[in-house]
Design goal:
It is a single chain. This protein is α/β, with parallel strands linked by helices. The protein contains 5 helices and 9 strands, in the order H-E-E-E-E-H-E-H-H-E-H-E-E-E. Strands 3-5-6-8-7 form a 5-stranded mixed sheet, with helices on one face. 46% of the residues are buried.
């Protein structure tokens, strides 16, 4: 989060903005359905980066495909995609690959999250993604917000995969073990062990949580160091969340769907 409001939340709550992403502090921020010319498909810049776009499936904290995700596609601003490519070129010789879970996120998807959070009867995915948080606390504790930095196109959720690891999909959309359970117990994922799963609404997801030690801590530090060298900034409350700076569109939240047809020239 970058707004003063959410910086305040950081001081009083254990976790913040685990799904909504960064919120701009400027009053003139706008929402538009128009795709700017500098947005690209990540695969057009680097085909080797693994894509596992969770919100285009039912395997996520909502338990349904999220509004606006028409195709399992990573879209980003071109500078952000090129920065990921540079990071990937450093990782491959060391035996690792990046894997993205979410990239550009349309405003309609964020609105979907807000509607879901207000429906206190829908607890299908609670035991996996937010077992220690009451759903009626998701707004107050900062896990859900009405704007997301992802909608500006320079923020990405991602992890590391060790080359040669057998590909493992996220499995059944049915709830799995708690997102902070040991890696062999929680939802299948071919990524390295980061201590929690992606989108785990829990303080253990904080990048520098002191309870995360050993190889899990080393993996988080390796990912962060690699991306920071290419101009990315980590959100301290989410080990998987990185924003490329300076942002190309810091004041605009876009709302075009995640689809090849949304891209300029398509």
């Amino acid at each position: 989060m970058t707004s003063m409001k959410h910086r305040t939340i950081l001081l009083v709550t254990a976790g913040v903005a685990l799904v909504a992403g960064a919120v701009a502090p400027v009053a003139r921020a706008t929402t538009t359905p128009v795709t700017p010319e500098d947005f690209v498909a990540l695969a057009s810049v680097d085909q080797s980066i693994i894509q596992e776009m969770r919100y285009s499936t039912r395997v996520n904290f909502v338990g349904e495909r999220v509004d606006g995700y028409q195709q399992p596609l990573c879209i980003l601003t071109e500078p952000t995609a090129k920065a990921l490519h540079r990071a990937q070129q450093k990782l491959l010789p060391q035996g690792y690959s990046l894997k993205v879970y979410d990239c550009y996120r349309p405003q309609r998807a964020v609105d979907n999250f807000v509607r879901w959070a207000k429906d206190l009867t829908d607890l299908r995915m609670k035991e996996e993604f937010y077992p220690q948080v009451a759903k009626d606390r998701l707004f107050a504790d900062g896990y859900i917000a009405e704007k997301s930095g992802h909608s500006r196109g320079s923020t990405v959720d991602l992890t590391l995969v060790k080359l040669g690891t057998p590909k493992t999909g996220p499995g059944s959309p049915e709830p799995a073990a708690a997102c902070y359970a040991s890696q062999d117990q929680r939802r299948p994922d071919d990524s390295v062990d980061m201590g929690t799963a992606f989108d785990c609404f829990d303080p253990l997801s904080h990048t520098d949580n002191p309870q995360i030690q050993g190889i899990q801590k080393s993996n988080r530090q390796f990912l962060r160091k690699t991306l920071e060298e290419e101009g990315f900034s980590n959100l301290p409350e989410e080990w998987w969340h990185f924003t490329h700076k300076p942002e190309s569109h810091p004041d605009t939240y876009f709302d075009f769907p995640v689809a090849y047809s949304s891209l300029p020239g398509d």
